[in-house]
C-alpha cells in the first residue's frame, strides 16, 4: 500500500479519495521543494567547507557550482585601453582654492558621473603602509589551512575566514577565499576573528583602519565640493558611527580561468568602497556594454561608488557593476574597505541636487545594505527598490 505525507500526518492510497486533491498536490510540491532545498544546502555546505586554495593545491578541476562564465554578450577591454581617470587628492586637500583644484574637482564629478569609480593618488596613506597591508594579507593566506580555519566563519555568517554565505539555488560560487572583519566602530569588532598570525596583522590593520577613516573624510568632502554642496553633507548622512568593514580577498590560480569568476558581477551596497590592489590585474568594470579591465597602480587606491552614494547624489554618481577574473598562472590579492552609513540611519538624495531639471529619483531608505544583500544572493541588483515609483514622484 502506497503512503503519502501531508502536513501533520501520513495517508495511504486507500485514504486518497477522502483528501482534497489540491491539498495533496500542494503537499507533494512542498515536500519536493523542501527535499531539494535541503539537498542543495547540504551540497553547498560541503563545497564551501573546502576552500578554493585547497582545491587548487590538490589539482582539482572547478566543481560545477563554480562554473559560470558567459562572455558572449560583452566585449572585454584590456587595461592598456582603459581610460579610467586618476584623481590627485594632493590638489583637493589644499585649503586654498586654485585653478588646478577646480579642474580636479570637475574631473572628479565627470568621472563619477560616467565611470562610478576612480584611481586616487596622494590620498594620505603612505606607500609603506599599503605595502604592509598587502604583505600581511599574503602571509595570512599562505598559512596552512588548519591555521586559517581557527577563525573560520559558518556558511551562513559574514565575518571570519571562508566564503560568502550560501547563495540561492542557481547562483554560482566565487573562485576565491576571503577574510571579512568589522573594523569600525571599535565596539563592533570581534577580536576572536582577528588573526594572531602573522604577528603584525592586528597592528597593521589598526593603522590601516585609522588611515581609511581619514580617507573617507577626504573623499566625502571632495565629492560634495565637486557637486557644489556643503562640504560635510555626505559625512552627515553617513553618520559619526558609519561602518568600516574590510574584506581581504585571495583569488587562487585556476587552470580553467575561462570557466570561473573570482567575484560574480554586482554593484556594491555600501556608500562606497576603497580597494587596494596588488600588481595582478583582474578587476573589471562594466561600462557602455563592455568590461573594462582596471589597471593596477602600485600605490593608488581605487574608489568605487556603491548604491547608497548613487542614492545620495540623486543618480548623478553611478554605482558601477563590476566583477573579478582569475589568472591561470598568478594568484591575486585585494583588500576592500566598505564604507556604509551607520545602522538604522535614513539616507536620501541631497536637497541641493533636486530641482526641475533633475527631479527626485530616489526615496529615503534605511539599512539599505540589508536589502542589497538579499538581492545579491539571487544575482540581482537592488537599487530599483529605492527609486521613486513614477514620474509623479509617488512615495518620494
TrEMBL record:
GO terms for molecular function: L-ascorbic acid binding; metal ion binding; oxidoreductase activity. The lineage of its organism: Eukaryota, Viridiplantae, Streptophyta, Embryophyta, Tracheophyta. It holds the Pfam family 2OG-FeII_Oxy. Keywords: Coiled coil, Iron, Metal-binding, Oxidoreductase, Vitamin C. Belongs to the iron/ascorbate-dependent oxidoreductase family. This is Fe2OG dioxygenase domain-containing protein. It comes from Sphenostylis stenocarpa. Residues 242-341 form the Fe2OG dioxygenase domain. InterPro entries: DIOX_N (IPR026992), IPNS-like_FE2OG_OXY (IPR044861), IPNS-like_sf (IPR027443), Oxoglu/Fe-dep_dioxygenase_dom (IPR005123), Plant_2OG-oxidoreductases (IPR050295). It comes from the Eukaryota. The keyword Oxidoreductase applies. Residues 205-232 form a coiled coil.
